């Protein structure tokens, strides 16, 4: 059957399916950056105004609860998570949940770098979730909301009780602006606008609940704290960080690009519209996979399947008979062929994940392009299998 697949005639208008940095919003051109405050200090009055605008619009778009802080921080989502781990962990035991590479990184940082002794680690393989009900509400918890490299998301936050004593620290970089987050159950949330809104990289966003702020003001970690991680002074939180006075120098071009992305997001219906777009993109792939004789989802359970970083696995018996190295080589050939054809850029699966493809379905991708991509996936598979 694979030999009969005809070369598709229609190409995606925008072949950008990278899982980060992600596709720019539809219609984006460099003109979007013309208002960037270049050649000026980010601490100038107009510089602070733009940064404050980005923060306030983020809070509004995400419906951040009253009393939650939101700040722009260095080093993308990674920097935001590291700030939280280094600043907040220590006074309570920590429960760590990992089911893909980035959540594994936070386990490594907590256990091996910070050397928090009283930890419990709950792990699951790619495509699965650990048992989140193992969480002890007297402990702090560290977890991702969406496993970017596994295509697995948390279906809800019901496992987090309202009367918890510990803090919940959530890396939501590929979930923010695409999934409903239960803010009342999350004390720290981080993301990078390079993900769902397709902004330019290098900047992270850190959001703190009043409970997290109280921890910052009452606890001093025993380890040396790098300058870019310091959020308190004299035992009080540095409010300026959450009002546009960044810890280090941000790119005002990247900030301008983010402001443009926020304007687009507001215009497509805000958070609800963004979620609908991501869900519609996922549905196109789900409809295709339901008819496919060679492909399925790494996350087999629909309830935990990501609507942003969608991980495709090969289910063909021939593929399953290959060695792990041969599987990886075959998947790489599919991605390389589609890249060479210019119909799908950067869709190889993550290097540590099982061999397969990863297709970004976030809101900045149009479902028409996902629909145009699916025949090319079938075509590429046929070419690689018969080679």
For the record, the count of structural domains works out to 2
Please report the number of helical segments: 9
Query: What is the CATH superfamily classification of the largest domain?
Result: Type I PLP-dependent aspartate aminotransferase-like (Major domain)
Low-confidence stretches: none
CATH topology name of the largest domain: Aspartate Aminotransferase, domain 2
CATH class placement of the largest domain? Alpha Beta
Q: Profile the largest sheet.
A: 7 strands, mixed
Q: In percent terms, what proportion of residues is strand?
A: 5-15%
Q: Supply the CATH architecture of the largest domain.
A: 3-Layer(aba) Sandwich
Structural class label: alpha/beta
Strand order of the largest sheet: 1-9-8-7-4-2-3
Q: What distance lies between the first and last C-alpha atoms, to the nearest angstrom?
A: 14 Å
Rg computed from alpha carbons, rounded to a whole number of angstroms? 21 Å
How many beta-strand runs?
A: 14
Task: State the oligomer.
Answer: single chain
